[in-house]
Amino acid sequence: MDRVRKFSFFLMTAASAFIIVLVIATALVLNSGMVDDFAKKELLSLFNNEYRGRLELREVKLRFPDQVTLVAPGIFEEKATQPAARADSITLKFNFLSLLRPKITLLSFREVDVDGPRVSIAEYADGQLNIGKIFARRRPEQPEVLAIEKFRARRLKVRNGSLSWKPANAPAYRLQNLRLDMSKAFVAKYEFMGTIKQMQFAMPDRGLTVKKGSGSIAFSSVRSDVLGLDFETAKSHAKLSISVDGLDIFSGISKKKLLKNKTFIHVESLNLDTSELNRFIPVPAVLSGLYEIKGDAKGTLADLEILPSSIGLGESRIAFKGEMLNLLDPESLSFNLQIDQSRLSPALLTKMLDDERYRKLAREANGIDFSGMLRGRPDQWMSGLDFKTAIGSGTTKFETKRLDGGKYEANGTFALEKTELHKLFGIEGVKSGFSGAGSFSGTLGTEGIERARLETSVKNAFWQQQAISSGSVTLDLNGKKLDLSTDLKSPDGASLVMAGLVDFSTPSPSYEAGGTVSKLDLSKATGIQDLRSDLNGRFDVKGQGLDFASLNLKASLVLEPSSFNDFRFRERSAISASIAQSAGASSASFESEAFDLSAQGNASLARMLETLRMASGCIAKEAGGSAATPLSLGASPFAFDYRLTVRDLAPLRPLIQAKELQFRGAASGKAAWAGGRLSMDANVASTSLSSGQALRLDNAAMTGSMQCTASGVDAAQLAGTAGTASLFGRELKTLRMNATFDGERLMAALDLAMPRFAEKLSAAFTARRSGNFATVSIDRLALT
After folding, report:
1. Dist CA 292 CA 237 (whole Å)
2. In this structure, are residues 84 and 130 in contact, taking their beta carbons and an 8 Å threshold?
3. In percent, how much of the chain has pLDDT > 70?
4. Are strands 150-166 and 106-109 parallel, antiparallel or unpaired?
5. 686 vs 24, higher pLDDT
6. Is residue 343 part of a domain?
7. Measured at the alpha carbon of residue 450, what is the angle toward residues 445 and 452, in degrees to the nearest 5?
8. CA 521, CA 532: separation in Å to the nearest integer?
9. Which of 76, 288, 379, 610 could cysteine-pair with 402, CB 3.0–4.6 Å?
10. Last residue of a domain, one of 203, 233, 265
11. What angle do CA 512, 516, 522 make, to 5 degrees?
């Protein structure tokens, strides 16, 4: 700030020179008529003889007794052709009689009006300013001609001004369209004060426009104040006050002095848009927006007390208080802050996260409400937080340390209450809750989490209807690989012990796990009552992908005595499943003591399941449904073969609407999709098929086919035989049936023997569709 002091001195010197000219001009006004030209010559001579710079002036207009106007004044560096500062005019209003005093130390004006000032301040490589060179004295060894010590103006006005500042090694700053209205302006050797009533300017190269500025400023050798500052730009607005005891800006500002000076800061409101701040200081895109800042601080910058303050961004808000030490020294900066009720909004969290899975989680959590403490240094700090979200709440305490290479290391503990784990893992359609505590540690690098370990003890939890009363979960992440282990127990004696590995190095994670289950009831774990079970045994799983599109899987379960629905598995009974999918082919299989199922072809698993849904929809429509069947299988054709062997239907009963159906046998066939049409065929061989007391077929064989479009079934055929049958208790033999359907007409024929009556029945009928009704005609009916 030594430059400020010198510049202020130069201004006072110039004002003193001008006063001498005024004295001479006043005398001429009183004694001759050659006033204006003489005053101009004397002013030019006085300035140009006193300083190394050069003053140029178009004319001087004296209006006795209280006004003088300088027209087109300009000051130049020695031998320069462009002025460092100039104005269209400067009008001064004051009492000429004040110049008649024997000694003038105070220059007082009623009004100073500056029109069209243009000032260009430049810094040279040696640190000197062009203004400083202009006001360097030609003969410093001689006494000063001017002795004015103070300058005062009741009103100072600047219109249509411009100012540029070009540092030696930094981009230039330019102000244009400057308007300033100031009252009670006072300048002395170590004092500068006044009240800014209005200030406006634009910085085109920074895209910034100040629409309004006002406040009071007071700088002296013992104190510096900026009070009631009201500053408004196109997007930002500040209302604040700053007071610093013992700060002498005229003697220079140093870090050592600032650390010792007592300071008080009051921010009534500061609405700061980062799009404007970013033109001066880079701001990361994830932190951009309109900030709302309020608060107070007092003390010194070596020991600053932060009174209750807050920082807001959109719906996010951080409220805090505490103390900060050595604020200007990054090496020894420390802080001790209490965080009051604060919030990070879903919008801010999703903006800060790149992975869509975590962004979705942030939205479901509906942000984070938290409070706590933050204590330490920028390279090592401790945190303690209480937090609450829409998917759970808890507490955490941890210590963070900065390592080399921009990495961070964290160690801490946590406790969770009523946390919905399924949302953390991105699983939909279920309910869960978790309460427990544990510890964690890890390392965070520029590419994300490099290493992490989490150990959790379960207080109480549930998944769907399965309660968990105790247990532990351990997760150990090293790079992209996650080791996990669980040991969970329920109040009813059920347990799950598992260890596994997940590899996240590819877009479709790969995984493998193994463990044991005891008294596992799938109806509780899934929430589907038809899946009641008592499963005991050991399982192994290996696969890749977590959705139908990328799923590849091999799984096996070796059972101890277990049950599923009404089916009981033998000791050491094995269950295995596999899914293999690639771009051109896929297969799926399931093998168990009760049934086997397999499918293979060039259809994905998702398309295979969608095919079954579509076929069911087509049949349901022909049975009375009115809605068209949606076809969402895409334009690409596909086909797959399937086979089902059933030894006991009990485990499949949850998938069947006819709960009394019993079946033993095998079914195989093919499904194909092409040109918007689904085709299916089936071959069924059954040793036993029954539905309660109403129907029973033994040694039955059937073949069938169906073609389906968006409007329903286009064509279908069914043919079957049975060695013996029972219909509502009546025994039948040598049963044969044939049926065809073409979308509008159903033709069926039936032949059977009735041993009780020693007769044979042969029948045929035709049904024709007519709107929502059908006309049935009997083509043949014979008893022989």
Report:
1. 9
2. yes
3. 91
4. parallel
5. 686
6. no
7. 120
8. 6
9. 379
10. 203
11. 95
Integer Cα distance of 306 and 546 in angstroms = 49
The total domain count for the chain is 2
Per residue in 272-300, pLDDT (tens digit) is 999 888 888 888 888 899 999 999 999 98
Strands (E), 345-492: 368-377, 380-389, 392-402, 408-419, 432-445, 448-463, 466-468, 470-478, 481-489
Give the CA dihedral 16, 18, 21, 23, nearest 10 degrees: -60
pLDDT digits (tens, 9 = 90+) for 231-283: 999 999 999 999 998 877 766 666 777 778 899 999 999 999 998 888 888 88
| pLDDT confidence bin for 599, thresholds 50/70/90 | very high
What phi and psi, each to the nearest 5 degrees, are found at residue 648? -150, 130
Instruction: Answer whether residue 80 shows pLDDT above 50.
Output: yes
Q: Coil, helix or strand for 440?
A: strand
User: pTM for the complete prediction?
Assistant: 0.70
3-state helix, strand, coil in the chain (%, to 5): 15, 55, 25
Residue 535: strand pairing partners: 520
Q: Which amino acid appears at position 745 of this protein? A: R
Structure token digits, residue 539: 């399982």
**Strand, coil or helix: 496:** strand
DSSP string, 330-356: TTT-EEEEEEEEEEE-HHHHHHH--SH
pLDDT given at position 33: 40
Kindly indicate the confidence band of residue 207, based on its pLDDT and cuts at 50, 70 and 90: confident
Please check whether residue 82 lies inside any domain of the structure.
yes
Give the range of the structural domain holding residue 678, as residue numbers without chain letter: 582-783
Q: Is residue 362 part of a domain?
A: no
Per-residue tokens: 196:
């800014």
Q: How many CB atoms lie within 10 A of CB 559?
A: 22
Question: Does residue 390 sit within a domain?
Answer: no
What H or E segment, with its residue span, contains residue 106?
strand 106-109
Q: Which residues pair with 239 in a beta bridge?
A: 230, 269
Residue where one domain finishes, among candidates 203, 232, 252: 203
Whole-number Å distance between alpha carbons of 615 and 600: 18
- Does the CA dihedral 219-222-226-228 come out positive or negative? negative
Q: Which amino acid, one-letter code, is at 45?
A: S
Q: What is the mean pLDDT of residues 697-701?
A: 91
Helix (H) or strand (E) holding 745: strand 745-754
742, 766 Cβ separation under 8 angstroms: no
Mean pLDDT value of segment 637-642: 94
- Sequence-distant (6+) residues with CB within 8 A of 695 are 689, 725, 726, 727
